[in-house]
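User: quick one, fold this
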Amino acid sequence: MLRDRADRAGDMAVFVAVAEAGSLSGAARRLGLTPSAVSRVVARIEARLGVQLLVRTTRTLRLTAEGETYGRAARRILADLAETETALSDRGCPRGRVRVSAATAHGRLVIVPLLGAFAARHPGIVVEIDLSDEIADVLGGRADIGIRFGPLADSPLTARRLGETGRTVVAAPAYLDRAGTPRRPADLAEHNCLDFTFRRSEPGWPFREAGRDFILPVRGTIAANNGETLVQLALGGVGITRVGTFHIADDLAAGRLVPLLEPFNPQDREAIHAVFVGGAGLPARVRVLVDFLAERMRGS
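Assistant:
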């Protein structure tokens, strides 16, 4: 009985090869076996399950409905087995490829500058960084780690908090010299406010005045779908914007941008998480990168 169970992974690998090759002879060439040996394995699986998995003629081979079901399950089980063995063997010296998906601006300004130190610490790991404002499907296998901002939707993914960011209203000195400096949130009605195009449940900018939180609708001549564009416009003296502090730290320090309405800033914070497929089979290469990001971004 134990030998029979031990052989099942090998049987699955043979069956998957048959399904992918579309013939017994093609699978045999791929596996270095004889066609008769491959045929015996398929017959053994069918006998064990009591169902027909393949329909064979002299010229064609196709999977039955039961064969399709078995093939999908076999691929999943073999992938899980390979992933588990890789994770265990990597614990001493993690190696392999990790795909990370991050928003364009945050990835460029925060994540990418950290990768050199990570590479020096873990030379056996290759990091593939994809910077895009499109949300990658981590559960569907499009990335190993996704960096997410704000509240997380319910999902089977594991989330690890990396840090948080606030938002600041800013403008360039040139714009303020030309248009004046707003002293209270209501003054923004007289200014060109550059906002995101993202849909929100409460469009506008949040403020706190006299102990009351409120959302102030704003309007301007240009809107954008990313913070880097808004910062570039603000630096050019086009108007006032409100963006994440990670976008503008250097510009504030250099005086290229000036913070506005800070006494009315509600100090709202947006959490930053890494999301990934967790569980006992989590590869060491994914775990150490998440740990590294959490270590370096803590307090950001």
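User: anything notable?
Assistant: The chain is about 40% helix and 25% strand.
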